[in-house]
Amino acid sequence: MTSARKKTAVKILILSIGLMLSGLIAEALLPAAVFSPLLHLAVVVLLAVSLVILKVAGGTTRTHRESEYSHELQEMQREVDKTIRRYKSLLEGAGNAIFVFNADSGILEEVNRKGCELLGFSKEEMAAMRGKDLVLEDEQGKFTLMVYRVKRRGRAHSDGITFKKSDGSSFLGEIDARLIDLGDENLVHVIVRDVTYRHRAKLEIQQRNRELSILNNILAGTQTSDLQTVLETTIKETLEIFSAEGGTIHLLEDDGKSQVLAASINISPELNAKLAHNKLQCASDCRLSSVQRCHVLNSLEEFPCHIAMAAAEEGWQCITAAPLVAKTDLIGIMHILTRAEQHYTTEELRFLSTMGSQIGIVIEQSRLFSELNWKNEELLRSHRLLEKSSNKLAVSQNRLRKNLTLVERANAELERFDRMKSHFIGMISHEFKTPLTSVLGGAEYLLNLDNRDLSVEQRRMLEMIYNGGHRLNEIVSDLLTVIKLETSASPVKKVSLQLSEIIETLQEQFKPLLNERKQTLSFRNKEALPYFNGDREYLEEVFNELLENAMKFTPDGGEIIIKGRVVDRQALAEKAELLIRFNPGFYEHQSGSCYLEVQVQDSGIGIRVDEQLKIFDKFYEVGDIRHHSSGKHKFQGKGTGLGLAIVKGMVEAHGGMVWVESSAGSGSSFFLLLPLEEIPGQPTLPFVQQEALPFLTGL
């Protein structure tokens, strides 16, 4: 029934009651004649109708209320179902394992997915289990006490109870539990977290802190410059940490192959003497003397090792060896000895190895400090000696200064004399040219005349004048050539050349002379030689001088050999010591990668080692006059000593160099290096004289 219908029914009821009351009042007040029975009947009927309407209205209201109650119950049921689903979702989606136990019986009432995964049981398997069935037997008492504590206080916490899994393994769990009062029963809500790794990390941190504290104590006790004190303190602290009775330290000797006893504690004099007498060899098979990591040896009498057998004779049962390492270098070994067998854990051996590394650094620093002190004392001693010698040094410096002044004056004087010499040579050479030209021209003219009035003697005299003048002209030309090379007055004109062309031309030129003296000239490997850039005129002069020298110093019937090959930088580097003797600046100015090496070999008198550098100087000749041949190639006397100086200057003008290899009595080999690439020319002869330039004009 709606609200409007309720209001209408109430209005009808009120109206009926009003009419009925009005009738009763009228009946009471008015006479019976006035209040007719009909009116009385109407009132009664109206009252009956009102009661019926009221009855109907009351039934309708009750039905409506029942409908509303049913609707509210349905709404409440939906809310309850929604809450249950939300609870299940939160329970299953929780990041931690959640268990719900009956506080009185200990039966597991509820567990989420994370709890099943953590323990490895299914929900069906866990439904029949009690709370204490989830922990190890040794931990069940601790679990029961925690449940009682929850009942008394309403909540409890445990840092670690060991739970067992379905596969037999276990883990350490952290527990947070609280009591839930549901009125008719009490439940315990438990959250379990696997803290095995966290607990392990915590223990490891505590162990590292303990080790660090121990190392700090050891390092604090070794803060001294005395190496022996450092070693003894190290052994003492190590024995205390590992509950050992005796210990030794062997340090590596300078040879890096053996170790000598450096310190010991609680070791008998007899054992000390044995260990000191017999050094530990790093290359031996004994693990106690060649360890790179910690080793523990029990039952020492079973090991055929010097230190083990010596310790066993003294009653020791166990030796633990720890390498002492500075950075990555082994500097020694520490041994700790016990009277009983020991079985150290992996962590203890790791800590001992760490100690060895730290102690090794301390020992190495102490040794370096001792060495530094010794060197400092030596330095102070040397300083005192230097102070004592300071006066003598001052006197020596004054003398040296005076001597240097004298040397500088002498060098300046020598340079002046050299300039005068070059000036004189240039002047004389220039002045000789004019009269020589007249003499040679006149002699040649007279010889060419068909003058039958000349006797044989007169003609011979004219030939001598002509030959002598021609020889003198060659000497003057050589002098001028040397001066040009010294002053670089004649630039190198390079063209593409083949060495065989020059040699074959000279071979044809010298053929009559070679035949006359029955000498042979052979040119080997000429087909394998490449073209190169060079000054044809210079190189013809170079090989002309070398071949003349070879013919002059080679006996009749001898052989002259010319060979060539291409060499690179590596081949030249192998001869560096030899080449620097003849040209110290060659490697500084070297920029080519390949060179043509030419060898002119004779079978003459040879050249002594002390003369090999001098022969390239001006006016220097080798050998006794009696060993020279006669004529131009067989003359009775030495030459001017300019030929090899010219050869040196012309070759170096090409950016190459020349040297000789010889020994007295076994012939000589002259070598030339000519670059196969365009490179800047090297400095020529070191005696450059600019004063000679005026005399070269027009020559």
From TrEMBL:
Residues 427-678 form the Histidine kinase domain. The keyword Transferase applies. Residues 66-93 form a coiled coil. It is an enzyme of class 2 (transferase). Keywords: Coiled coil, Kinase, Membrane, Phosphoprotein, Transferase, Transmembrane, Transmembrane helix, Two-component regulatory system. The chain crosses the membrane at residues 12-32. SUPFAM superfamilies: ATPase domain of HSP90 chaperone/DNA topoisomerase II/histidine kinase (SSF55874), GAF domain-like (SSF55781), Homodimeric domain of signal transducing histidine kinase (SSF47384), PYP-like sensor domain (PAS domain) (SSF55785). It catalyses: ATP + protein L-histidine = ADP + protein N-phospho-L-histidine. GO terms for molecular function: phosphorelay sensor kinase activity. InterPro entries: GAF, GAF-like_dom_sf, HATPase_C_sf, HATPase_dom, His_kinase_dom, HisK_dim/P_dom, HisK_dim/P_sf, PAS. Its EC number is 2.7.13.3. Residues 83-154 form the PAS domain. It holds the Pfam family GAF_2. Signal peptide: none annotated. PANTHER family: HISTIDINE KINASE, TWO-COMPONENT HISTIDINE KINASE. This is histidine kinase. It comes from Geotalea daltonii (strain DSM 22248 / JCM 15807 / FRC-32).
